[in-house]
Design goal:
about 110 residues, mainly beta, Thrombin, subunit H, six-stranded antiparallel beta sheet, 6 strands, about 45% strand
């Protein structure tokens, strides 16, 4: 389990987080709810040298707090937080930083 998922896993299913993806030109900030953490892979054959397994978090979008550029996120939908869809920052609901790609990134 990577560091980002470990930090998310320290919260219970059903708890809310604030998650930011993107950069200055294309950024989205959402408030959502942790649904579950599960094992996943990158959909390649297991004998492919680029095959990888990882943990991911299913995360329900409750609110779009801010969107700059072409960011698109549907309220009520589940999205995946993982090394393949890595945000730049994650905060608890009180806006305490719990993970930052520049500090904690892989």
């Amino acid at each position: 389990m990577d560091n980002m998922i470990k930090k998310i896993n320290s919260f219970k299913n059903g708890e809310k987080l604030i998650v930011i993806w993107g950069d200055d030109n294309n950024r989205i900030t959402i408030e959502g709810t942790i649904d579950t953490i599960y094992e996943s892979d990158n959909c390649l054959d297991e004998d492919d040298p680029n095959y990888k397994e990882f943990y991911a978090c299913a995360f329900k979008v409750d609110k779009v707090l801010d969107a700059i550029g072409n960011s698109n996120m549907e309220v009520g939908k589940l999205i995946e937080i993982s090394v393949d869809n890595q945000p730049v920052q994650i905060f608890d609901i009180n806006r305490n930083l719990i993970w930052d790609i520049n500090i904690d990134g892989l």
